[in-house]
Design a protein that fits this description.
alpha+beta; Aminopeptidase; 5-stranded mixed β-sheet; 11 helices
């Protein structure tokens, strides 16, 4: 049986669709008390469900926020924060129908970009999402790792109480700002489930804040993992960093100095850090900071190609004409001339041809046009064009999201 209807989720369907998402992701069912406290983070707005009669069999959720793009601009963003299909209804078109409805809604609301974190990387390319930012996993060994003497020492680090962490960190994140392409805003509904649940009075995470000459300018959220075993009873704990943001390099270094000063710790483990974060060279011995993994972080989907391309800046190079193909939002299909002065639609012959998911990979500067062409993701019609596109789209700083959603 394949009959189902895709429609917006109503207020009284919030709990059932949240439970469905949890089951599809193999999470524990949320109890009544937890739902009462954190259910506000799962509003009905901008959620599309697939229903068989009155029963939900699929969910595609998003929230509206903003994202920093190369050059310092900020664009409206649809952040896709939950997609799942009931186990007995997969591979029957449910996901495709929900994603089509969701994209049509984004376009109708004039949102130029959509983004997600992909649980399975092979799924989302067919809906126009491309891997646009990477993150690395770091493991820093203690007690050997320490910052070298030329790293500036400025300000103080203090621990917050759980109550302070709930009230102070949202405002501090806003003050730090979206300083790197790929960073996103955190709306009010994001904080209860993604921060308060972990760092609030009933959470296990610790929050520390750095204060510099101009006040608070950085914070870190971490958990302590006990690694002692019968065979290694004296093994120190591991500090597992969940969230670390700083307004400037001095504040960032101070937070790492604090983490590396905590007693009875054998290592600091941090996942999804910027790939160009210079922690290793802050240390007296860079070998004590090892990159364990580099993996996809943010996936990006241009919803309005002209608006998205026009919002970012480009480096100086000769123009490139891109032929973009978008089967789900065919209004995006067309030719776009990209220059150091901006972007316009054109009837000129294309230098490079690519699908919209590949444009998502190119957009933030994580991947070069040359690499994407070599991988067969870009069709080259002018052999000199990949080098020009590299120069136009290249960014000095690697993109990074830094927000779990």
């Amino acid at each position: 049986m394949t009959d189902f209807a895709v429609r917006p989720v109503t207020e009284d369907e919030r709990r059932s669709t949240f439970d469905l998402l949890g089951r599809s992701l193999h999470s524990n069912r949320v109890g009544d008390e937890t739902w009462t406290r954190f259910g506000s983070s799962w509003p009905a707005a901008h959620k599309f469900g697939a229903f068989d009669g009155g029963a939900p069999i699929g969910i595609a959720s998003s929230f509206t926020t903003e994202i920093a793009v190369p050059g310092g601009g900020v664009l409206a963003l649809a952040a896709v924060d939950g997609v799942g299909v009931r186990a007995d209804r997969t591979r029957r078109g449910v996901l495709t129908a929900m994603m089509a409805a969701q994209l049509a809604d984004f376009a109708a609301r004039g949102i130029p970009l959509a983004a997600l974190h992909a649980s399975e990387p092979t799924i989302y390319g067919r809906f126009g999402y491309g891997s646009a930012a990477l993150g690395k996993t770091l493991r820093v060994t203690r007690p050997a790792a320490r910052l070298h003497e030329r790293v500036p020492v400025e300000g103080d680090v203090r621990l917050l109480t759980p109550e302070e962490a709930v009230t102070e960190i949202p405002g501090l994140y806003r003050r730090i700002g979206l300083s790197r392409a790929g960073m996103i805003g955190r709306p009010a509904a994001w904080w209860p489930i993604a921060h308060e649940r972990l760092a609030g009075p009933d959470g296990s995470h610790v929050v520390a804040v750095h204060s510099g000459p101009d006040g608070d300018d950085g914070f870190v959220v971490y958990d302590t993992v006990d690694t002692r075993t019968l065979d290694a009873p004296d093994e120190g704990a591991v500090l597992k960093v969940r969230d670390l943001h700083a307004a400037n390099p001095v504040a960032g270094a101070a937070l790492w100095r604090f983490l590396l000063s905590v007693d009875l710790v054998s290592a600091v483990h941090a996942r999804h850090r910027p790939v160009d974060e210079p922690l290793a060279v802050l240390l007296t011995d860079h070998r004590h900071a090892r990159t364990l993994d580099v993996e996809d972080d943010l996936w990006l989907r241009p919803v309005d190609v002209a608006a998205a391309l026009g919002a970012r800046t480009y480096r100086g190079a000769e123009p490139v004409v891109l032929a973009v193909r978008d089967r789900m939002l065919p209004g995006n299909t067309g030719h776009y001339e990209v220059t150091s002065d901006g972007v316009r639609r054109t009837d000129a012959a294309a230098d490079l041809a690519l699908d919209v998911d590949t444009l998502g990979m190119l957009y933030l500067g994580q991947w070069s046009a040359t690499a994407l062409a070599q991988a067969g993701r870009i069709e080259v019609r002018d052999p000199a064009a990949p080098a020009r596109a590299d120069e136009l789209f290249t960014t000095v700083t690697a993109p990074w999201c830094g927000t779990h959603f």
